[in-house]
């Protein structure tokens, strides 16, 4: 888990105008609000909001969004109110935290009766600020990374299916392919681990030949482009 200083240092690497006092205050606020709570893994709950903030900092987001990552569960899971967040951090952060909270409540009400497509539309319609969705995706990504700590099989499968049907497509629509890929892979592993293992093994067996083929084809393209005065770099992915 990132400590307060490391998180601030990480954000400062891409945002030299950062007001570190806001993140320091948000970190302390979250620590106090979640002090008696534990994750399914048995770890202190603070690990989760800090991990969400860490994911958001990987996306190089602004300090208000990072602060929201730290505070995103305070209204939903603690005695903290919208008014108290607004008083301590201002209307911008309070509205973002409230927006994430509303999406979490929608999960409970809507997914039982509506198709995934309708829920995706509902999320987009109720999110006035795109940063709300970014925080929610970071929240879901960390929850999926720690899904194996949930002992209830049916709950684990429900979360994985929800992720596959709602949050992976949502991240795809937002152009966040690397998050979509990880969400899909984690969901697939939870829903059908044997099938995923079979595919991973197959890919592993063929990897050397695939890499050699890619290298040979890339050299042909690069040479052809260079002959026409075009410098290039060719990359690929599985």
Give a description of the structure.
The chain has 238 residues and is mostly helical. The protein has one domain (4-191): Orthogonal Bundle (Hypothetical protein af1432). 73% of the residues lie in helices and 0% in strands. The chain has 12 helices and no strands. α3 (47-58) packs antiparallel against α4, α4 crosses α9 (130-145) and α10 (153-173) packs antiparallel against α11 (177-191).
Task: List the SSEs and their pairings.
Layout: H1 4-12, H2 20-33, H3 47-58, H4 63-71, H5 74-77, H6 82-89, H7 91-110, H8 116-126, H9 130-145, H10 153-173, H11 177-191, H12 193-227
Question: How is this structure best summarized?
Answer:
By secondary structure, the protein is mostly helical.
Low-confidence stretches: none
Global mean pLDDT: 92
User: And the CATH topology?
Assistant: Hypothetical protein af1432
- Helix percent reads over 70%
Order of helices and strands: HHHHHHHHHHHH
Proportion in β-strands: under 5%
Question: Total helix count?
Answer: 12
N/C terminus separation: 30 Å
Task: Using brief descriptors, characterize the structure shown.
Hypothetical protein af1432, mainly alpha, 238 residues
